[in-house]
Amino acid sequence: MKSIDQATSTPQPLLSGENQVIWTLWLTYGAFYFCRTNLAVALPGIEQEFGFDKVQMGIVLLSLKVTYGIGQFLNGQLAERFSPRAMLSVGMIASAALNIAFGFGAALYFFLFVWAMNGYCQSLGWTPCVRVLGNWVPVARRGKAMGIVGTGYQLTAGLTFVVAGVAVSLLGWRGAVWVPPAILLTAAVVMLLFLKETPDDQEDATWDSHHSPSKQPRSFLRNVQLTLSNPALWLLALSLGLLNACRYGFIDWGVSHLYSIESERLAVTGSSSAASTAEALDSAVFSSAIKYAILPIGGILGSLWAGWASDQYFGSRRAPVTCGLLVVLGLLTIAYDTVARVSFMGTLLMLLAIGFTIYGPQVLLVGTAPADLAKEGTAAAAAGFVNCMGYFGAALFGDLLTGHLAEHYGWKVAISVWAAWAFLAAGLVALLWNKTGDGHV
To answer: What pTM value is reported for the model?
Structure first.
């Protein structure tokens, strides 16, 4: 298997099959989200049925991020040596099975264990995709390609809210973890049929002349050394951790936040008795989930624009676009809670804009920039490390801290802290303002 390409400043021709690979990765990684973000829609029902509070459910949400982060680091190294198709297959099938098992649970520790295992299985998704993308797409086109792949998990994240919301309205909270696995398994079949890990043999000469891969695979320890000794990757990792704290605040807790607003409105209008029934709960959850499906639509636009703009206007420098979008994200987040309480249309527009400013920088930080700045072509290892740190930030500051703040101080305080993470991330990214994929500043 070929190694990942080194950055190059000369134009490269489009390889036959490159577009098929990009769109297969688009579907493959996007499908993982059906069995990851779906729990956000199930949370209100779980809390009501079993009496768990937001801190307890925050720990369940955190468990996925911790094991996902650890898995990203480990699998980033393993993806340099093992078949991406095999790793993706195991991750997709196991994640679907664990989601189904989650629906049969009733105890907090069972939920915690199953969701933690799901986190590790989910971590088998991203780094193999980065490996394959790096095998096919050179730096000059990678921003656009990664932007396209990024729209996959923006779209499926939005569809997850819709699918899980409809499933909850029909089957209760368990529907949110029983229906999405069917979609993930279908995508696994498509991946096995259509994904090519490297260019065809007849294109090897073209590949070698344009990508200059390493001839011998590096050891696990050598990959780790190359990754951890790269200061630029540490800045990317810390920035992504802060961005993910804000991102997963919205993704994991956003439906609960809007549901709390709906519940307050029902109480004010004298419908508190109806609100206490399972039917009213499911209706409010469904309404909140449908509203939240607009956020990934903005994410699709942000992913496409950020990758294209960084290639087109900044010479494949990712930091200027990332920094600017993070500042805007912080400003939007400050205003979000107020707007959500007074205007339905304003809420939709805010979520659209927030999605744009979350996923534009996220798709650059999670894949494009690490692949650009990796040493000796270790793009999968670099992406795994950055994503590992990103999910620890999501776990500690996005899930656990948000649950604590929302439970004890209210949603306004929790959301204001999300904004602070965005501003801090922008400051760190600014330190890489002139960094490019060729290793020069």
So the answer is: 0.74
